[in-house]
Write a structure and sequence with these properties.
Elements: H1 3-12, H2 16-21, H3 27-34, H4 43-52, H5 69-83, H6 86-90, E1 91-95, E2 102-106, E3 116-119, E4 127-131, H7 134-151, E5 154-160, H8 164-173, E6 177-178, E7 186-191, E8 195-201, E9 207-214, H9 217-228, E10 234-236
Antiparallel strand pairs: 1-2, 2-3, 3-4, 5-9, 5-10, 6-7, 7-8, 8-9
Helix pairs in contact: 1-7
Length: 239
């Protein structure tokens, strides 16, 4: 089973519509795209496109990211035509967005997962890391979608990113189980089935935002705010 199969199985637990909308590209289309790149795509990126390359079913809809193969081909051609191949020797385009120039995947070093970045400017890129790997970005996005679809709203608090380690320790001590796709950038966990927590590092500032939904959200958010000197919890429509 590929990681995209596991992702689809997870999403199907709360949203079967996404998997019905998702359409992958063909192996032939993918080979044709790779033939104009300076190096093959990472295996994780290839698997994503084969599962979601024509339509990701709305997985990244809230982020405004267009991950279709047609879009990333056009974005890659733009980079090639405007700036030469230098950019594409280091990065693969994963998505385009009106809000940012591109979401990109760093070409992996042997033994290391390719890191996913958000590029804010074509000509003078400023790189903001989004995830330690493409699967963690996709699973994290799916987790946030679960929060939105199941609960609609959440409580949010925030504080310096330097408190991320203490935050994780506090949540574990409160029996919040860490999801396997948590990484060095974002943390996801749940207490049973009825409380979900997402701690996401902000891309434009050295802060971390914590979103809590469900039965224990109020008590957990008050505990975190008090013990870690975070902001006063407030209702948010983000998750």
């Amino acid at each position: 089973m590929s990681w995209t199969d596991t992702l689809t199985t997870y999403i199907d637990q709360y949203d079967t519509k996404l998997s019905r909308r998702a359409v992958g590209c063909s192996e032939r289309e993918l080979r044709r795209f790779e033939s104009v790149l300076p190096a093959p795509l990472s295996e994780a990126h290839r698997e994503f496109l084969l599962a979601f390359g024509e339509n990701d079913g709305g997985l990244f809809e809230a982020d405004g990211f267009d991950t279709s193969l047609a879009t990333i081909q056009a974005c890659s051609r733009d980079y090639q035509n405007d700036y030469g191949a230098d950019f594409l020797r280091r990065f693969d385009v994963f998505a385009s967005s009106p809000a940012v120039e591109a979401v990109t995947i760093e070409r992996g070093v042997v033994g290391h997962e390719p890191v996913v970045f958000m590029a804010n400017d074509h000509r003078h890129p400023t790189w903001s890391p989004l995830a330690d790997s493409l699967p963690t970005l996709c699973f994290g996005t799916a987790f946030i979608r679960e929060m939105k679809l199941r609960f609609g709203r959440c409580l949010m608090t925030r504080g310096p990113a330097s408190r991320a380690s203490s935050l994780r320790d506090h949540l574990r001590s409160e029996e919040v189980s860490e999801e396997s796709f948590s990484d060095s950038i974002s943390w996801y966990g749940r207490r049973g089935r009825e409380t979900l927590v997402a701690a996401v590092r902000e891309t434009a500032a050295p802060y971390i935002s914590i979103y809590l939904c469900g039965a224990s959200a109020s008590s957990l958010s008050r505990m975190l705010a008090g013990e870690l000197q975070l902001t006063e919890p407030r209702p948010s429509a983000f998750a």
